[in-house]
Amino acid sequence: MRYLITGGGGFLGSELVTELVKGKKNEVYIFDNFMAGAPEKLPRDKIKETIVGNIKDFYSISRAVERAKPDVIVHLAAHTTRPETLGEFRMCAEVNYIGTANLLETCMRDNCKPKKIVFASSEAVRNPTSHHGICKRASEKLLESVCPVVNIQLGILRFSEIYGISAVQSSNSLVNFLVDSMVVDRPIAVFDVAKQKDYVHVSDAVRACKLAVRSKLSLFNVDIGPGEPITTRELVEKIRGLVKFGGGLKYLEHPAVRVYDSVADPAPAKQILKFECKADFDTELLKLIKNRKKELRD
Fold this sequence. Notes:
298 residues; alpha/beta; Rossmann fold; 9 helices; 13 strands; 19% strand
């Protein structure tokens, strides 16, 4: 199987690539600009080719697809921010929507059309008030409208915020953000702390991608998350206690910051992909804190 992983050098991508190259019959190509990734941390001796480029540039992603001629594209490349971050509209649109459009237009060519695209979407599309959510929702709609017409199978995975330990520690997950901030005693301001969310461990996210690739369904769109809600306040206090954080912490509300309850419905993924989250949140949180204390304090 020939794979092209856009964003293959990122937080989720690096872990997925590490798993895929274990398959002796797999040929894995990576496309990434490595603004946040770290190519030296990838299993480069097992990767077929690492292609450096920016998905905002049509000709850059076009050359990558033509070079790889993949059976499957796992589209992870994205521009993400914390939901309370305003601005960065142009960058968000260029990477998340225009980047997806660039990829899709390339894939419509007969000489490099993949059998399947697996698109990493986001829980932010459920109530898309952030620009990240708006762009991801638009990308979903574009893919859903075109892929069936041109005979490309499509799997959309709406990930809850992904947390955990990765070879490339660049996650924008609130969990990782809080852990890193508290470990180094950085002052923290957190918005809308009564809102409920759930969080998916990176190992479960990787497994979901692999199951999506193997699925024989021509079109599906499922949530990937445990469906176990925790309020932001509960999460902050849990991490504060485990880290023994004594620094500045403010709970804030602001009319410009619109954070909503967002909890995955795990039932469709269980039915369609036979997928269930396996990682225990408390266990993995302790591992993450231990890892980040070593990485950031040493």
